[in-house]
Amino acid sequence: MNWLGIVGHERQKQGMERILGKGRLGQAYILTGPSGVGKRQFAKALCAALLCLKHSHRPELGACGTCESCSLCERDSHPDLLTVGKPEERSEFPVKLMQEFCARFYLKPMVSGRKVAILDDADSLNQESANCFLKTLEEPPLGMVVFLVGERLEKQLQTVLSRCQQIPFGPLVTRDMDRMVDGETKNIAEWNWAKWASGGSIVSARAMADPKVWVILEKVLRLLARQNRIEPTLAEDLVQLAESAGDSGATQRPKILDFLRAASRTFSSLLAPDEIAEPGNFTNQEWVNQIKYNISRQKLLRLLETLGNSGEQVERFIPLALGMAWLSEEIHQIAET
Ligand SMILES: [Zn+2]
Question: What pTM, to 2 d.p., does this model score?
């Protein structure tokens, strides 16, 4: 992927193009912003340009896409592109993993003229792992460039921020999201809603453009409006939604977190039913209009709090079946009040 061909993020692309064009590339960059907007892809495409055998002297042109280095990048098997991220089951970045990662900086490049690295989950660096990384940055190997990828700027350690140049990313606009899925068949109503509910994350929008998501949202709404007094399958539906994303927690948790965020955005919109709806806003849906006035503001507020708590549990690695059973039980209790 040529980094110039990345959809959206024009300001970030232009800024980096200027830096590369003037030959003023720094040693470490930190890319922060919402998840699923393409920060990692941006870093990866820049790495490919820096490693490219034809264009590495002019990386502003982007990777050629045809040389040996480019084909290794394409297959995610370039020996000079080092990547590391927090293990899924850990809440912080282990220092031992960081030590191993940093030691690899000093190995001789095998294909390209330099080594480059991507450090994911920068939000999870603790003082110890950050110190190890910063120490390596003090005497970096020649030509080494590291891209850190994180979400929230306020979660980054000051010591890390002071040593890295910052590239902040914002949410994607819907036009760019449409360009990204060009050619993929999508139900228009679902896709419009998914884009809106994702808050500008293409990963989340793709995950939410799923008929199963609407089935669950409708069940919750009908429960709250007391149109369905008993809905015993809600917990099962949620677990099935998670399982549809894959076999491991690493793929199932993000799907549920995307769902909880999209559901929160959606139910929040019902608190202001007279607001002019954005295109794709859930409140436009006909079946919502039939039931939303039967749900009290108090119930919606309690539901939003519950969705937030459920998200925190999932982030703290509660077993998903347990977490979804809890969420379902809470929603039933709210419905009964
Ligand atoms: Zn190339």
Answer: 0.86
Q: Tokens for 111, please give them.
A: 């294909």
Query: Measured between alpha carbons, how far is residue 163 from residues 55, 160, 252, 313, 327 in Å?
Result: 27, 5, 35, 33, 42
Cα gap 105→94, rounded to integer Å: 18
What's the gap in Å between 98 CA and the centre of ligand 1?
A: 29
In 3D, which of 3, 2, 1 has the Cα closest to residue 167?
3
Give 75 Cα–ligand 1 centroid separation in angstroms. 13
| Bridge partner list, 280 | none
Same domain, yes or no: 323 and 191? yes
For the sheet containing 116-119, what is the strand order?
81-84, 116-119, 145-149, 28-32, 165-168
C-alpha 190 to ligand 1 mean position (Å): 39
H-assigned helices in 181-248: 188-198, 202-208, 211-224, 234-243
With 70 as the cut, is the pLDDT of residue 168 above it? yes
C-alpha–C-alpha distance, residues 64 and 80, integer Å: 17
Ligand 1 centre to CA of 86 (Å) is 29
Question: What does the pLDDT look like over 211-262, one tens digit per residue?
Answer: 899 889 988 988 888 876 666 789 999 999 999 999 988 899 999 999 999 9
Q: Print the domain residue range for 81.
A: 3-168
Give residue 76 CA to ligand 1 midpoint distance, Å: 14
7: in domain: yes
